[in-house]
């Protein structure tokens, strides 16, 4: 079996359906004796350019190990799903288990203070100053 990295973006109107979609894809992979090594829900993000007048979409990343038939079945379900705007499947040399750079970035943002300075435990981040226009 080979390793693949899959990223697919879902129309924002169907964002609430993402967990069911992911479960369906995971079930399909498990049914055909494949494995999901990493699954990340990146949430809604701004698109680089509009797709069919849509400016934001819901991103999901999966690292899987499966056979060619399972991969074709997944690709078929991506192509014919109205909710999936785009998908990308990349063959990988090995399984990736560590968080992706996108998730590491999110984690570091949540750990940083308001002004980008890491706050110490028990210390509130320094409030930002508001510039007021001169009359």
Please render the helix and strand layout as text.
Blueprint: E1 2-10, H1 18-31, E2 35-51, E3 54-66, H2 68-79, E4 84-92, H3 101-111
Explain the overall architecture.
With 135 residues, this protein is of the alpha+beta class. The protein has three helices and four strands; from the N terminus they run E-H-E-E-H-E-H. It has a four-stranded antiparallel sheet, with helices on one face. About 5% of the residues have low confidence.
State the strand order across the main sheet. 2-3-1-4
Contiguous uncertain segments of 5+ residues: 114-120
User: Could you describe the largest sheet, including whether it forms a barrel?
Assistant: 4 strands, antiparallel
Number of strands: 4
State the end-to-end CA separation: 69 Å
Order of helices and strands: EHEEHEH
Our Rg estimate from Cα atoms comes to 19 Å
Mean of pLDDT: 84
Helix count from the secondary structure assignment: 3
- Helix-and-strand structural type: alpha+beta
**Beta-strand percentage?**
35-45%
Give the % helix: 25-40%
Shape: globular
């Amino acid at each position: 079996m080979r390793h693949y990295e899959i990223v697919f973006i879902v129309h924002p109107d169907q964002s609430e359906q993402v967990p069911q979609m992911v479960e369906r894809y995971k079930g399909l992979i498990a049914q055909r004796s494949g494995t999901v090594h990493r699954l990340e829900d990146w949430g809604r993000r701004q698109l680089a350019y509009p797709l069919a007048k849509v400016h934001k979409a819901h991103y999901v990343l999966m690292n899987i190990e499966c056979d060619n038939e399972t991969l074709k079945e997944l690709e078929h379900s991506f192509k014919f799903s109205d909710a999936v705007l785009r998908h990308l499947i990349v063959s990988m040399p090995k399984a990736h288990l560590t968080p992706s750079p996108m998730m590491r970035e999110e984690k570091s943002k949540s750990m940083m203070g308001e002004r980008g300075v890491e706050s110490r435990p028990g210390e509130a981040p320094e409030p930002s100053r508001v510039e007021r226009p001169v009359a």
